[in-house]
Amino acid sequence: MWSVIKARLKQGFRTGTFPHTRPVLPDRFQGLPCLDNTRCRTDCRVCIEACPTNAIGREKDGIVLDSGKCLFCGKCVPLCPEGVIRFSREHDLAAFSRQELLRKDSSASHELQPRAEIRKLCGKSLKIRQVSAGGCGACELDFNVLNTLAWDMARLHIQVVASPRHADCLLVTGPVSKNMLLALQKTYAAVPEPCFVIACGACAISGGIHAESPEVCGGLEGILPVDLYVPGCPPHPATLLEALIRFMGLKLR
Amino acid sequence: MSETFLRLTNPGSAALADLPVLSFSEFSSQALRVIRERGGRVSAFFAVPQGAQFRLILVLALDQEGKLLLSATDTGSEYPSLTPDCPQFHWFERELFEQHGIRPQGHPWLKPIRFNQSQNIPGVTDYFTMSGDAVHEVAVGPVHAGVIEPGHFRFQCLGEDVFSLEISLGYQHRGIEKRLIGGPDKKSIHLLETAAGDSSCSYAGAYCQIIEQLSPGCRVSDRNQALRVVAWELERIANHTGDLGALAGDVAFRPTMAYCGRLRGDFLNMTAALCGNRFGRGLIVPGGFGYEVDQTLCNKLLPWIEKTAYELNNAADLLFNAPTVLDRFENTGTVSAETAREIGLVGVAARASGLQQDVRFCHPYGFYNQLPFPLASNNSGDVLGRAQVRMGELIFSMITVAHLLEDLPLRGKTPTKYRLSGNRIAVSLVEAWRGELCHVALTDASGKFSSYKVVDPSFHNWFGLAMALRGEQISHFPVCNKSFNLSYCGHDL
Question: What integer is the mean pLDDT of B178-202?
Answer without folding.
Answer: 94
